[in-house]
Amino acid sequence: MRCRMPWLAIVGSFSVNGVAELHSNLLAQGLFRDFFEMWPEKFNNKTNGVTPRRWLAAANPQLAEPITETVGDGWHADLSRLERLKDAVGDAGFAGCWNSIRRANKERLAGLVAHYTGVKFNPGALFDVQVKRIHEYKRQLLNVLHVVHLYNRIHRGETDGWVDRCVLIGGKAAPGYIRAKEIIKLINNVAAVVNSDPVVGDRLKVAFIPNYNVSKMEVICSAADLSEQISTAGKEASGTGNMKFMMNGAVTIGTYDSANIEIMQAVGEDNFFLFGLHADEVLELRNHYRPQQYIDQDDDLRGVLQLLEAGHFNAEEPGIFDGILDSLKSPHDPWMTLADFRSYVDAQQRVEQAWLDREQWTRMSILNTTSSGVFSTDRTIAEYNDDIWRLQPME
C-alpha cells in the first residue's frame, strides 16, 4: 500500500501555497493541476521573506546606521520604508559613505576567508559569491565552468577591460549525496590550481568556505558584490539567500526562477543580470536536449571541457571527475547546465562592464537595498495571517 502524502495533505488542508510566484504557478498548473481544477480557491502564493532585524540590522550594523539617518526609525519593523533611500541614490556624499561601509565589510570577509582557507582576497576586487546547499540543480557546476573560462581567458591573454574577481563558494552537502561531494572536491581542486598559478596572480582568486553556517553568512551577505542565484529555471522553490544578499546591496546574477523573478521585478531589469532558459523552455527542451551541440557551437565551452577532461585540475587523481563530466554531457541531464553556459558567460561580461563604471555599480547596489522591502518576513507572515490564520495580532 502506498500513501501519497502531498495528495493527502491537499485533501485535508484549508489552504495550499507555494513560496514564490513561479513556484505557486508550477504547483497549480503542473504537479497538482487536477487538485487545482477541483479546488482553485485552495491555492495561493506566499513568497518567502527574511527578517531585516537579523539580516540587515544585526548582520550589517555599519550600513544600518546611515539607513536610519536617511529614512528615520521604524524601518526594522516596516521594511517598505527603505523605498525612501531612492532620494539618496544620486547623493555623492551618501554614495561615498555607502562604498566606505561596503569596503570595510569586504575587508572583514577577506579576513574570514583567509582565516578558514588561507586564500587572500583583495577587497578592491569584485566579490562574486554563491553560498547555499550544494546540489546539482543549484548549479555550482555552472559557476565552476565560468571560473575555468576566466582562467582560460587569462592564459590566452584576453584581459582587456579585465575585472579582478574573487569567487567565494560555500555550502553543505547531504551525507549520502555523492555527486554534491564530488562538486565540492572539484571546486577545491580548481581553486588550488588557480590560486597558485603565477600567470593568474591576483586577477582571479577562488575559495570554498568550509563549515558554512549562519554566523558566516552574516559576514558574507554584507560584503558580497555579486549574488549568484543560478538554479535551473523551475527547480528552485523560492530561495532566501537571494533576499539576504539583495537586502545588503549585492546585485543578483540569476535565472528566471524562484523569487529571482520577483527580485528583478522589484529592482528593475536594469539592476539585475538575467540569463538562461525560462521554466517553460526547460520543460520543452527536456525530450530533445543535446549537450554536444552546445559544445560544438561554442569555442569557450569546448575549451573549458577540454581542460577538465585533460585532468588539468586533477593531475594526481586521474578520472576523479569523470562522473561529473559524463553528467554534464548527458542528454538526460535534468539541470541542462551546458545549455545555459553561453548566456551565463555573456551575463558575466555585462557584470564586468557594469563594475568598471563605479558610479553605476554603486547606484545598482543602493537600489537593490532600497527595493528589498517586499522580502521581509513581516510581509510574508501578514499575508499568511490575513488569508489563512486570521489571528488577532498581539498589542
Please describe the topology of this protein:
Elements: H1 5-12, E1 16-18, H2 21-31, H3 33-38, E2 43-45, H4 52-58, H5 61-71, H6 92-117, E3 126-131, H7 140-156, E4 165-170, H8 178-196, E5 204-209, H9 214-221, E6 226-229, H10 241-247, E7 251-254, H11 260-267, E8 273-274, H12 279-285, H13 291-297, H14 299-309, H15 322-328, H16 341-356, H17 358-370, H18 377-389
Parallel strand pairs: 1-2, 3-4, 3-6, 4-5, 6-7, 7-8
Helix pairs in contact: 7-8, 7-14, 13-14
Highlighted features:
395 residues, 6-stranded parallel beta sheet, alpha/beta, globular, single chain
Descriptive notes:
This protein has helices at 5-12, 21-31, 33-38, 52-58, 61-71, 92-117, 140-156, 178-196, 214-221, 241-247, 260-267, 279-285, 291-297, 299-309, 322-328, 341-356, 358-370, 377-389, and strands at 16-18, 43-45, 126-131, 165-170, 204-209, 226-229, 251-254, 273-274. By secondary structure, it is of the alpha/beta class. Strands 5-4-3-6-7-8 form a six-stranded parallel β-sheet, sandwiched between helices. A two-stranded parallel ribbon has the order 1-2. It is globular.
Strand segment count:
8
Strand order of the largest sheet: 5-4-3-6-7-8
Separation, N- and C-terminal Cα atoms: 49 Å
Uncertain spans:
none
Task: Note the total helix count.
Answer: 18
Apparent shape: globular
Structural class by helix and strand composition: alpha/beta
Largest sheet: 6 strands, parallel
Q: Report the sheet-strand fraction.
A: 5-15%
Write down the Rg.
22 Å
What would the average pLDDT be, to the nearest integer? Answer: 97
Spell the H/E element sequence.
HEHHEHHHEHEHEHEHEHEHHHHHHH
Helical amount among residues, as a percent range?
Answer: 40-55%
